[in-house]
Amino acid sequence: MPNTINDKGRDAMDKGHQAVDKAKEAGRDALGAAKDVGHQAADKAKDVASRVGDAAGSAMHTAGQKADQLASTVAGTAHSAAEAVRQHGPRDGMLGNATKAVADTIDTTGRYLEKEGVTGMMGDVTELVRRNPIPALFVGIGIGYLLGRVLDRS
Fold first, then answer.
1. d(Cα 97, Cα 89) in Å, to the nearest integer?
2. CB atoms within 10 A of CB 54
3. What is the pLDDT of residues 18-57, one digit of tens each?
4. Rounded Cα distance, 113 and 110, in Å
5. Domain limits for position 44
6. Cβ atoms within 10 Å, residue 113
7. Quick check: 142 and 103 in contact, CB under 8 A?
8. Distance CA 22, CA 15 (A)
9. What's the structural domain count of the chain?
10. DSSP 8-state assignment for residue 59
11. How many other CB atoms sit within 10 Å of the CB of residue 99?
12. 3-class DSSP state for residue 78?
C-alpha cells in the first residue's frame, strides 16, 4: 500500500507540473497575442496621427496662402490710399510735407506687404521679440489690457 500512495503522489505531482507547464504556455501565448494587439494598435495610432498631421499641415498651408493673398490685397489698397493722399492732400508747406510723409509711409508699408507677405511679417515679428523680449512683453501686456477694456465694454 505504501507504493500506491507514493505512486499516486508522484502522479499528482506530475499532473501538477503538467498543469503548470500548460499554464506557462498559455500565458506565453496570451502575452504574444497581447503584444500583437498592442503593436497593431500602435501602428493604427501612428497612422491616424500621421493623417491628422498631414491634414493639419495642409490646412496651415492653405491658411498661409490665403493670408498671403490677403496681404497682397491690402498692399494694393495701401498703394491706392497713398496715391489718394498725394492727390488730395496739400502739396506745399508744413502740411504738404506731412502729407508726403504719410503717403510715403503708406506706400512703403504696401511694398513691405507685397514683398514679405504674412509669413515674412511673422518672421520679422518673431525676430523683433527675440531681440527685445522685455519691451515685447510690456507691449503684449498693454495690448492685452486694452483688449480686455474694449471687450469688457461690449
1. 10
2. 10
3. 878 887 888 788 878 888 887 888 888 788 878 887 787 7
4. 5
5. 2-153
6. 23
7. no
8. 10
9. 1
10. H
11. 19
12. helix
